[in-house]
Amino acid sequence: MNTVLIVDDEPIIREGIKNKIEWEALGLKLSAEAEDGIDALACLEQELPTIMLTDIRMPELDGLQLVQEAKRKWPDLICVIVSGYHDFEYARQAIKYGVQDYVLKPVNDKELNRLLGELLERHKEQADEKNDLQLTRLIGQTGSRPDGERLPGLPIEEGYAVVFEVAGEIGQPQWKRLRQLIEKQLLGAKLTGHVFRHAYHPQEMVVLVSSCSASAAGMSASYNGRKLWVSRTMEEIRLALQAEVTAGMGMPVKADNMAESYKAALLAVKSKIVHGSGRIFEIESGQYSPLLSPLNSEEERYLSSVLEHGQRAQLREMLVQRFSKLAANPECGLLQLEKAYAEIEYFFQKCCSGYTHTFLARGPAIETFNSWHDAVEDLLAQGDIIMKAGRERQQRSGEEIVSEVKQFIDQHYYENISLNWVADRYYIHAKYFSKLFKEKYGENFSDYITKVRLEHAAERMADGSLSIQQVAALVGYEDAAYFSSVFRKYYGMTPTQFRESLRA
User: Fold this and answer.
1) Would strands 2-7 and 51-55 be described as parallel, antiparallel, or unpaired?
2) For the segment 347-401, what is each residue's pLDDT rounded down to a tens digit?
3) Could you check whether the bond before residue 106 is cis, i.e. omega within 30 degrees of 0?
4) Quick check: 326 and 337 in contact, CB under 8 A?
5) Is the separation of the CB atoms in 244 and 224 below 8 Å?
């Protein structure tokens, strides 16, 4: 309970203040009375109150000196000056020392109780914020927990985490009500634990529950019991806030591993992206295993064909089919959705390698999606970029294609580049392209590839740590003997002789 220390050198004033405070309504209790600053400091040392009400003009140690010393030792102490009209300037000065507010004599009971109520409310908010930040750190989101540091005030040997995520914008008053609702449900289920708002994920209300707070044989300690109180809490939140709420349950763990239970609960609540909100999700062992086969060669060929021919409707159909299959599996969670998304995104990135000046930015984090349909739409947008690049490539002139291919060779000479590769990618006849290339650059297409590769090979010969076979592989020749033959024809000496000439 919050307590109050009253400091004034006049007993009648102290008595008057005591009589004006609505102790029960405010949830306050008198900790002590003091007749001067020296006496007050002794009281503070014995029992630190929540609030100190003090006069300014007192013998021995006045109110300003008292506040200054008290705030130095106990910075969280709420200090209120009770001042006469003639001491108004002193009261203003006291604000600089850390006094939260002041009350003018004669004290008005309504004004005093209003002020105390506001100060207590502010004190609770600050305490909640501090508690939220501490617990956020302790569940491992901003760093590892120091050795031996345990959850304060939670006498548990074993427990579990629950994450409640509320849809929409929730203001501070609603969050306070939400906290109260959850605490009430915990009490009703005869459970103890910590309820706090995640300091860095403001849509999350986290509950760390002690498994030892209920009988091992009782419903609250069992799996069904845990799920029952979470379900009842969700219903209370829906009715009170008129908002959709989703819950994620972590597995029971030893106190030192509570961060793991929180991570599991957070991962579980994100399953709403796959299966929809308004439900309870949990992480089971099976949910960490793959539930969808990776893209096979036939599916990759189909995707390539759809992209090359600009078949957007077919691409959407394929994506919807793949992701709806995941959503239909009750064991599927965020990890599987993320894996399926990343696999297709990676395939799209590979497709882009054949398009100069076409790049795909990495998609947003999966947990930011509202549903799996968002993943489909994001991948479809990436597919649109590739299909647009394909259409633009088909519309290019022969001279533009020749320039682009030459630029690609200069940067990717080590890849398997041939006339058939050019024809397939740029929708141009191989012989026609070969003719255009020679007209523009004065040499054959294949001769240019050979020249670029061998010039790079000659540069790498200076690195004595590389074998001839390694140099060949680095510039695009799998057969070292063939590489040596081509190299000798171009430079008039074998790669070995060329390397020796560099050393001479």
Assistant:
1) parallel
2) 888 777 655 455 566 667 777 888 889 989 999 998 888 888 877 766 667 888 8
3) yes
4) yes
5) no
